[in-house]
Amino acid sequence: MGTRKNRSLNWMLVGFLGGVLVSLGISAAAQRGEPLPLKALQQFANVYGAIKSSYVEPVPDQALIDDAIKGLFTGLDPHSVYLDEEAYKQMQDITRGGFGGLGIEIGTQDGMPKVIAPIEDTPAARAGILTGDLIIQINGETTKGMSLNDAVKKMRGEPGTPIDLSIQRAGSLKPLKFHIVREMIKTRSVRGKMLDHGIAYVRISQFQDRTTSDLVKMLADLSKQQTPKGLVLDLRNDPGGLLDGAIGVSSAFLEPGKLVVSTKGRIPSSNEEFYARSLNGSHGVEGGVQLPAWTRTVPMVVLVNVGSASASEIVAGALQDYKRARIIGNRTFGKGSVQSVLQLDKDTGIKLTTARYYTPSGRSIQNTGVSPDHVVDDSAAGNLFRMQREVDLQHHLETQANPSGTDDPEDDDFVQGEIKMFEFGGADDWQLRQAINALQGRPVLKSDPVLVRQARAAAATDKSGMAAAKPASDAPPAPEEKKTLNDAGDGVERYRVTPDGLIRIP
């Protein structure tokens, strides 16, 4: 009797799962009109039934179903994920530009959360968290083996509450500790200002719902001071976001009707072409703000680095293909895939990679990234930001044009010793200075050879000193470095060695 009941339950599960697959339209077999794999579904139902009846502790049905759905994504590319209720809400918060927590964008590396980018003017950025930092402890609890979702939950919290993070930074001999107070994060995706000599500077930190509208307003505001003679568009450490935002931003600098990006996938709806559009009239922004005429003709430079991904690469690739702008900085992340969000119910969904995208000339930047016209280090003394690119991630999609990726000999030069973290768009921004040089017809320098030699000499000294001192002492290790938001000193934050879509933001 029990066996018959279990079989009945199993076949009910097979029917239920098959119905879900068909109704969502995500089963490859269903897409091709082939029958569902009933034998495999029967096997799944048998395992499900065994867990329900025999596991040492009872497991809720919803927990089993959620874990089973998550398991479907483990062999897919790293950008395809199941969005449970919390993750789905976070995705909506990110694209709308508001969320609570620290203000860092994170991915995973070696089973631990890794900082893709700290968001400007947030607790994490002010505390000194850097791109490429590996979060090894949260409030004293190790993150090894912790799911990304669990790490996000632990880092989120009520504004005003503190959190302690232990960070492993590439090149650092010991973990760095940070004491940070959570805030309600409201991100501004577009910032800008006029520089000397009539050069406009605009930085986009993320592509959100309002990015195109905010960009048009910013460009119009800059025009009130004077008509710019040159423009620097800063996309460094911008991890991307909404595809429509990338089309809108590109449309501000390209003539309407020009191809911005094309996508190619397995199903017809994934094969599309997207063109630059007018940003006035029916596509205008709130308040009737008009796009200034100079934006499509002014000399232009785009700044990128290893943290520039996805939508950032679409914009940089399009402007480079049309020779509308010169690209300066380091090779970008290399995320050339498109994710579609499919809603399962009002609170959950899946983010599924459905296509690759191609620049107007037909280039795929998957794994290879956008190579700059002028390679320029993050600082005058070498590169600061070290992180895995798309090609280094497990299960990444291959690039048909160049599956092995692109070698980066310039990535070997990193600043050693104590350095000051520069401000994007600030007076100490080396790459921005080179962008200005390009616009004014002066030579563009990769780095300052004198400072590079000094950095290498300092690194060699540190290494030889460490090698000599290590076996000579049995003393306990020195206390871990600690930084807090209240550190005063000389007002300059320094770091030992500083060597980046949908992505979660705690």
Kindly list the characteristics that best describe this protein.
disordered N terminus; 29% helix; 506 residues; alpha+beta; five-stranded antiparallel sheet; disordered C terminus; globular
Notes on the structure:
GO terms for molecular function: endopeptidase activity; serine-type peptidase activity. Residues 91-156 form the PDZ domain. One of its GO terms (cellular component) is outer membrane-bounded periplasmic space. Keywords: Hydrolase, Protease, Serine protease. With 506 residues, the protein is of the alpha+beta class. A hairpin with a 5-residue loop joins strand 17 and strand 18. It is globular. Helix 1 crosses helix 3, helix 8 packs parallel to helix 9 and helix 9 runs parallel beside helix 10. The longest helix is centred in the first third of the chain and has 23 residues, at 2-24. It has twelve helices and 22 strands. The strands form six sheets. Strands 10-11-12-15-16-19 form a six-stranded mixed beta sheet, with helices on both faces. Strands 1, 13, 14, 17 and 18 form a five-stranded antiparallel beta sheet that branches. The protein has a five-stranded mixed beta sheet with strand order 6-5-7-8-21.
